Each structure stands twice: as C-alpha cells, then as structure tokens.
Amino acid sequence: MQKPIHVLSEIGKLHTVILKRPGTELENLIPQMMKFLLFDDIPYLKIAQQEHDYFSETLNRLGTEVLNLDDLIAESLTQQNVKKDFIEQVIDESGFLHGPVHDALEQYLLSLETQKMVAKVMSGVRRNEVELKEVGLKELTEDTRFPFYMNPMTNLYFTRDPAAAIGEGISINNMTFAARKRESLFMEYIIAHHPRFANQGIRVWHNRAQATSIEGGDELVLSAQVLAIGVSQRTDASAIEKIAQNLFENSNFKSVLAIRIPHNHAMMHLDTVFTMINRDQFTVHPAILNKKGQIDSWVLHPKKGGGTSIEHHTNLKATLKKVLGLSEIDLIPTGGGDEIAAAREQWNDGTNTLAVAPGEVVTYDRNYISNKLLREHGILVHEIHSSELSRGRGGPRCMSMPIIREDL
Ligand SMILES: NC(=O)NCCC[C@H](N)C(=O)O
C-alpha cells in the first residue's frame, strides 16, 4: 500500500505535492513590514495567483497530484476541540499567551467557519478587526508600528520550507525568523489529524519544538541513502547533527552531506544555489564556489558503536561522486557562468529547479540563459510565468513540498 509520505530522491517522478496558492496575505504586505516579512517588493496578487495557477496546472498536466495546504489544514480541524487547540496555539505563537488581545482574537477566530478561520489566520488579523473588552498596561504600552495583532503569513506559498518529506518521515521545522515561525504549525496539525496522514506511523525526524533551526529549502534528498543539507542563514550545524543522528538510527540514510553556503537573503537556502535535476546532473550558482572552485562541505556517517564521524571536503564534484557512487557529475552553472547573468538569474531563482522526473524540471521563464543551458545539457524544461511569484525570492522548488515520489 502507498505510504502517505515517500520521498527517496529529489528527482523520482513527482507523484504528490503540497502547494499553497498565494492569497490575501500578500495584500497585507506593506513597505514598513517588508524586510521583517522577508520580501523585497510587493507582488501584484492577481497576477501572482494566475502564475501560481499555471504552476499548479503544469504539475497536474505532468501527472502530479496537487494538494492544497489550505484544504489540508481545514480538513484536519473538523473536531471542535482540535480546532480550538489550533486557534489557541496560533494566538499564543502570535505573541498573546493570555490577556484581552488573546481573548478577543480567540472569540473572533472561533466565530468563523473553519475554512474562513484558516484564511484569516494566514492573511493576518488587523488591530481594528477585533474589539478589546478591557485595556491594561500591556495594551497601552505595546509597540503599534505594525497594524496587525496577527501578522500576515506572506511566505506560505513557499511550502518547501516549513516541513520536508525525507524517506517515509518528515522534518517539521523550527523556522529561523519570526515572520515564518508559525508556518510549520500547519504541518504539525496535518500530520496529527488529517485522515490521510494521522495514525500512519509517520516518523518525525525533527520537530518544531527543537531549539535548533532547520528549513526545507536546505534539505535535499540526493538518494535513498544520502541527504544534503545546507549550513545556511536558516539551518544551524547543530540541527544537522541532530537530524543526521536520528536518521542514522531510525532509517536507511547512511550519509548526510552538509554544504556551507553564504549567509544572505538571496541565497538563504541550499536550494537557491544548488538543485538536483538528474541522476548525475545538478544546477549550481557559480558564486558559491571560491576562486579555486571550492566550497566547504562535511560528510557525516554513523560510527560503529554509536556517534557520528565527520569528513571535510572542498571539491563539490568529487564529493558528490563519492557520496553518490557516480563516475561523472555534470554541474550546470546558473547564467551560463557569466558573472552578471548568473547574479541576475540566481536572484530570480534561476538555480531553483523542481525536478518532476529524472532530467525533467519546472523553472521560471525569466531565467532564459539558464533554461537554454539546461536544454543544451539534455534536460526537458517546463517554464512557468514568474513576474510576480519571483518577488518573494523563491522558485518552483521553494513553492512545492513533494510528499510522494516514485522510486528510481
Ligand atoms: N526554499 C526557498 O529558498 N524558499 C524561498 C523562501 C523565500 C522567503 N521570502 C524567505 O525569505 O523565507
């Protein structure tokens, strides 16, 4: 019987994926909150939705089952006590553990029918939407720079990051920045309460209560035995050690390749600078390699008798060949290696491909130099529109959370 989660590679035919159509959360993005909400500009929602619908239709046309995050969470909250717990938790995590604001938000959200409540939680609750029964010193002295009690979750359409399917389990991530912390709550409820996932023995490799942070854009399943993880702005080395240990003890994964990437917003996750597109082919943003073409990486293995051994490497090609047992590797440089084209196209997620089958990817149309090069390397490329979606700094891989891929 098909397990609810089954991802043993980055490239096996994509069977089932979770997406989130951009919604009114994007219309609650305002200039003074942009940096905090991890955006560089305000997307035009109508066009962003059209582009996203085209992405979803493209995946459908290629034979992928598309599940929507909003539906999954609403279907997980059918029991009144679960819905109430969810509302309590999301209010707590929005900064209101108790008090008049907490009570007003609770009353408001409980009054909404489940789907509307979910949409509201995602799009944010403005201060003027709820009436406080009393006002204490906390309310009088609080920071009112932002017009929301509950901030909009503008990054939700990047379903890749809050959780990642690895093997037949999942990592439910502790996100780095406040703007995204609440996002992984959805997957926690879905795994625990959705009929498709609940009580199926799904292993949780990392949970959101863990102090160390990790994000799905850094987690790449290179094979049934090898996981690559970025040491990045968003993922701590200590989180990598913990998840590696858990995988070594409880799954068939035998190696974790930790790759250190620059810590900045354009390259916030490993998948913004490196993705797998075929058994032996990868995209890579040339700027992550130093002048000698090197990058620091460490391979973690289980040690006999317990613990983990760590080997340091600097040659990405040689390291990939070694961990994957391949004789050749084709690293395809974003922007064809031209310094300016590479920087521009990486900024617009030219490196961030979503493999739908071995050697077959979905990419943004605007990265025409990288797309042409991929085709010259024999890759089948399906382009999607990207004018507005790209303003959030994420591409097709960031916008998708595969939960079932066919084995290679
Ligand atoms: N996997 C990814 O690279 N996701 C893109 C996330 C973009 C989002 N604005 C963020 O900064 O978290």
UniProtKB/TrEMBL annotation:
<comment type="pathway">
    <text>Amino-acid degradation; L-arginine degradation via ADI pathway; carbamoyl phosphate from L-arginine: step 1/2.</text>
</comment>
<dbReference type="GO" id="GO:0005737">
    <property type="term" value="C:cytoplasm"/>
</dbReference>
<keyword id="KW-0378">Hydrolase</keyword>
<protein>
    <recommendedName>
        <fullName>Arginine deiminase</fullName>
        <ecNumber>3.5.3.6</ecNumber>
    </recommendedName>
</protein>
<keyword id="KW-0963">Cytoplasm</keyword>
<dbReference type="GO" id="GO:0016990">
    <property type="term" value="F:arginine deiminase activity"/>
</dbReference>
<dbReference type="Pfam" id="PF02274">
    <property type="entry name" value="ADI"/>
</dbReference>
<feature type="active site" description="Amidino-cysteine intermediate">
    <location>
        <position position="398"/>
    </location>
</feature>
<comment type="similarity">
    <text>Belongs to the arginine deiminase family.</text>
</comment>
<keyword id="KW-0056">Arginine metabolism</keyword>
<dbReference type="InterPro" id="IPR003876">
    <property type="entry name" value="Arg_deiminase"/>
</dbReference>
<dbReference type="GO" id="GO:0019546">
    <property type="term" value="P:L-arginine deiminase pathway"/>
</dbReference>
